[in-house]
Amino acid sequence: MFVFACKPNNESEKKEKQEREKAPFVWEGANLYFLLTDRFNNGDTRNDVNYNRTDETAKLRGFEGGDLKGITQKINEGYFTDLGVNAIWMSPIFEQIHEGTNEGTGKTYGFHGYWTKDWTNLDANFGTREDLKTLVESAHKKGIRVVLDAVINHTGPATDKDPVWPSDWVRVGPQCEYTNYENTIACTLVKNLPDIKTESNETVNLPPELIEKWKAEGRYEKEIAELDAFFKRTGYPKAPRFYIIKWLTDYISDFGIDGYRVDTVKHTEEYVWQEFKKECDFAFSNWKTTNSNAVLDDNKFYLVGEVYNYGISSGKLFDFGDKKVNYFDNAFNQLINFELKWNVKEKSKEEVFKRYSNILNSDLKGYGILNYLSSHDDGQPFDPKREKPYKTATMLLLTPGASQIYYGDETARSLVVEGTVGDATLRSFMNWKALTENPEIQNILKHWQKLGQFRKEHPAVGAGVHQMISETPYVFYRSYIKGDYKDVIVSGLDLPKGEKQLDVSSVFKNGDILHDAYSYQDVEVKNGKVSLTSEFDIVLLEKK
Fold it and tell me: E-strand spans in 291-401?
């Protein structure tokens, strides 16, 4: 096993335990790690080929072996702990269409997880239910939450082996135009991506192919009994969206997952997400009641929505042009923030930090955003060639809001791969080999680890109120209060290497002993200031 850590592993684990016990976990300041299940780590080569998926595909458009066991391996090795990650978001793990298809980007399989064939089953390429159970339990032992990815908007494409769902379940046209509310919702995202009729309240029968599949797998009676019980309890009509809501919330009831990232939110009526939240909350509450010994904290179920092109500047409202929609109230804790990459390119650190803090503590108070600088489907990431990995870490992990590390951000995995078409360039396999062999990548990872651990141990970083102390040198503090818990940190950026001095008089008093979590040295406050010498241009101060 090859492990990089900021400190000796036993010290890291000891501090992790101490901080987890005293610092409350808050989703508003969480440090999520987003990975494509198939592209992260191959823990079991025996499940690499299933459903006769043996056709040659276009570059980076086939399954490559990543699985749940591989993720669990890295959890147990402490990879995520050392990175300061306190939540893992995985791309969808449900059974995908069996056949490959060509949608203009070359032959492609559903390795990404967004082409669902059966919501009630895990894809054999990703692993088994037992594998998922082990992953969740392993993560929870480390104080790490597990977020799955939910798709209610569409099924997978139709192929010879994957028939289109019945016409009372899905529409196959028209294709979305994205110019107003209606032609963004009642339409297919792209050609041959059947759109679930989420607006329908009409009773529908199960697709014949699904019934046949369940019978062949020996679980038809069980699935029907559970559906009958769900519809009896809720009183919902047996309409398409409620079947899928039931199937998705089963993963909460069965495994105790902590949240869902929800795909294609703006392509579905907003009331669907309110209904989804209600059933997620019900399932999570029941799971906590029946698994009291496994409960991590009193946080409610987490829902973060992908409203494509939503930005923090919009506050609570997303504008379709002809209609503005609030996806927060009674639905999402957070929305993914698509504008940070532009803000980082165009504005100073202080402009970004102050603006985000102001909005999160006013228009979005009680809710939040999930920041990112690269992802699986944003074709214009902040740093595609990985020329600025240190700046990426500093801005992502110190900007107010929750942070989303995209797998390989921390190891400078290139997002430019020759021979790929479209978003495949963003989705190469995790560069573990380069990490073991390249000292510079190891140094980059250490930078991410230090910032990530600091963020995890201090809710003030992501969920606190920002205040600049001085512009030159650039020094600021963040403060956070929740009940009896108070947290405050001071950070300096773009400082001189070698000797440096920071004014901390507005936060700490003379005689206080502070710890710089970046250079691992203690300093005393004298005359309202701290002086220290390090080879770094960054300081992360916490009270001892």
Answer: 302-305, 317-319, 324-326, 334-337, 368-371
Asked if 78 and 12 count as a contact pair (C-beta separation under 8 A), the reply is: yes
CATH T-level fold of 467-543: Immunoglobulin-like (2.60.40)
User: What integer pLDDT is reported at residue 5 of this predicted model?
Assistant: 38
**Annotated catalytic sites, by residue?**
263, 306
- Every domain of the chain with CATH number 3.20.20.80 lies at 9-155+257-459
* 3-class SS string, 390-418: HHHHHHHHHCCCEEEEECCHHHCCCCCCC
Q: What is the mean pLDDT of the chain?
A: 95
- Do the Cβ atoms of 127 and 94 come closer than 8 Å? no
CA distance 178 to 170: 19
150: phi then psi, degrees, rounded to nearest 5: -110, 135
Read off the pLDDT band of 22 (50, 70, 90). Answer: confident
- Looking at the structure, give the CATH architecture of the domain made up of residues 9-155+257-459: Alpha-Beta Barrel (3.20)
CATH 2.60.40.1180 residue ranges of the chain are: 467-543
Distance CA 390, CA 343 (A): 17
Q: How far is CA 373 from the centre of its chain?
A: 12
Burial class of residue 109, CB neighbours in 10 A (0-12, 13-18, 19+): buried
What is the Cα–Cα distance from 438 to 68, expressed in whole angstroms? 27
* Gap between the Cα atoms of 376 and 36, Å rounded: 8
Strand 195-196 versus strand 485-493 pairing type: unpaired
Tokens 């290497």: give the residue. Answer: 497
Q: Are 156 and 117 contacting, i.e. CB atoms less than 8 angstroms apart? A: yes
Per-residue confidence at 6, pLDDT binned at 50, 70, 90?
Answer: very low
- CB-CB contact of 157 with 98 (8 Å): no
Tell me 263's DSSP state: S
Q: Is the dihedral of CA 213, 218, 220, 223 positive or negative?
A: negative
Q: What's the pLDDT score for residue 135?
A: 98
CA 331, CA 327: separation in Å to the nearest integer? 6
**CA dist., res. 332 & res. 306, Å (int):** 10
